[in-house]
From TrEMBL:
This is tRNA-specific 2-thiouridylase MnmA. It comes from Salinisphaera hydrothermalis (strain C41B8). Pfam families: tRNA_Me_trans, tRNA_Me_trans_C, tRNA_Me_trans_M. NCBIfam families: PRK00143.1, trmU. It is found in: Cytoplasm. Residues 101-103 are annotated as: Interaction with target base in tRNA. One of its GO terms (biological process) is tRNA wobble position uridine thiolation. Keywords: ATP-binding, Cytoplasm, Disulfide bond, Nucleotide-binding, RNA-binding, Transferase, tRNA processing, tRNA-binding. The lineage of its organism: Bacteria, Pseudomonadati, Pseudomonadota, Gammaproteobacteria, Salinisphaerales. Catalyzes the 2-thiolation of uridine at the wobble position (U34) of tRNA, leading to the formation of s(2)U34. The gene is mnmA. ATP binds at G16, V17, S18, G19, G20, V21, D22, S23, M42, G130. Belongs to the MnmA/TRMU family.
Length: 384
């Protein structure tokens, strides 16, 4: 694939379309800018497995949009790659007691790898997606920047994408707000202008998450114990499997009406895999939820990798704010992060993403909270 960012009229851009309003307006803006635009719809999940998968309907919506824009529409089936490189890792992580982030994996393995290679075969100069993020292409190395709409910024999910892929990518929505996106779609007469946004994990959709996991993994029952307070150490219930819970979880614990406990929510504060014990507390500021350190594995840098402590900011979940920190490389190739103030509920398997202002510097998969460098390493990356 060529990397030229020349005159739009001489540049063929393959847009990843999903049948939603974001990718549709991405294609619209590129057409209006004068690029040679073609679209590619990705089938990432088999209909016979999902049951409720909307891929066929979404493809019809994408086709209607491409007809309205008078651009070619291609289709590609990446379900085999998705299963081997994203879903298998997703299951292995949950089985190991972690909370993986499949959106980060999907971007790295599918949208900016399998899709990009397919676009190459279609003769693309560049690719484009409907992500709310920006890329500064003016320097020798592209800089991934937050999208200007703070409520939609998706740079967190793009932090593991190879820098070589970012150099060949356009994000036309990075400079605008979501409300403007819908207005543009309506004004252009795109048939998806009022289509609801998709929510949840792409291969799960609106289904009950625990129910979905139970189709693939069997949890092992164990005790639910209280950490701290007057009921410290007491068993108050039985859980059906640690794999169904994540650090900081509040909803879906089913712990109402515990004798001797105050009225109020419970929080997951720890998972003891060795003893199949789920530790909970009614203290929203429990020390386990307010840790200032973490260890992460194999950082992926979008800048020149630091050879010593790096002052920056970092966030440990998509919807959390970035917090000032010091990130220090470790001899084993991992990284230790110490925050100036504790982020909420650090969960192994999620990603710590580093920023300098709006500039996304890279990311790493969280291995353990509290700076415990001896925690088990994450599952190995699986490639097709």
């Amino acid at each position: 694939m060529k990397t030229s960012h020349g005159h739009p009229a001489d540049t063929r851009v393959i847009v990843g379309v999903s049948g939603g309003v974001d990718s549709s307006v991405t294609a619209l803006k590129l057409v209006e800018a004068g690029y040679q635009v073609e679209a590619l719809f990705m089938f990432n999940w088999s209909e016979d497995e999902a049951g409720r998968c909307q891929a066929a309907d979404d493809f019809d919506d994408a086709a209607a949009v491409c007809d309205a824009l008078d651009i070619p529409l291609h289709r590609a089936d990446f379900s085999r790659e998705y299963k081997a490189r994203v879903f298998r890792y997703f299951l292995d992580s949950y089985a190991a007691g972690r909370t993986p982030n499949p959106d980060v994996l999907c971007n790295r393995e599918i949208k900016f790898d399998a899709f990009m290679h397919h676009a190459d075969r279609l003769g693309a100069d560049l690719i484009a997606t409907g992500h709310y993020a920006r890329i500064d292409h003016t320097g020798e190395r592209p800089r991934l920047l937050r999208g200007l709409d703070p409520n939609k910024d998706q740079s967190y999910f793009l932090s593991a994408v190879p820098i070589e892929a970012l150099a060949r990518t356009l994000f036309p929505l990075g400079e605008i707000d979501k409300t403007d996106v819908r207005a543009l779609a309506r004004r252009a007469g795109l048939p998806v202008h009022d289509k609801p946004d998709s929510t949840g994990v792409c291969f799960i959709g609106e289904r009950d998450f625990e129910g979905f996991l139970r189709e693939y993994l069997s949890g092992r029952a164990g005790p639910v114990r209280v950490s701290g307070g007057p009921l410290d150490g007491r068993v108050i219930a039985e859980h059906s499997g640690l794999i169904y819970y994540t650090i900081g979880q509040r909803r879906g614990l089913g712990l109402g009406g515990v004798a001797g406990a105050a009225e109020g929510p419970w929080y997951v504060v720890a998972k003891d895999l060795g003893n199949d014990t789920l530790w909970v507390s009614q203290d929203a500021a429990h020390p386990a939820l307010e840790q200032k350190e973490l260890v992460a594995a194999a950082p992926h840098w979008l800048i020149e990798p630091p050879d010593g402590p790096l002052r920056c900011a970092a966030q440990v979940r998509y919807r959390q704010a970035a917090i000032d920190c010091e990130a220090t490389p470790l001899p084993d190739g991992g990284i230790h992060v110490r925050f100036d103030r504790p982020p909420r509920a650090i969960a192994p398997g999620q990603y710590v993403v580093f920023y300098d202002g709006a500039h996304c510097l890279g990311s790493a998969e969280i291995q353990a909270a509290g700076g415990d460098a001896k925690a088990a390493a994450p599952p190995q990356r699986v490639t097709a």
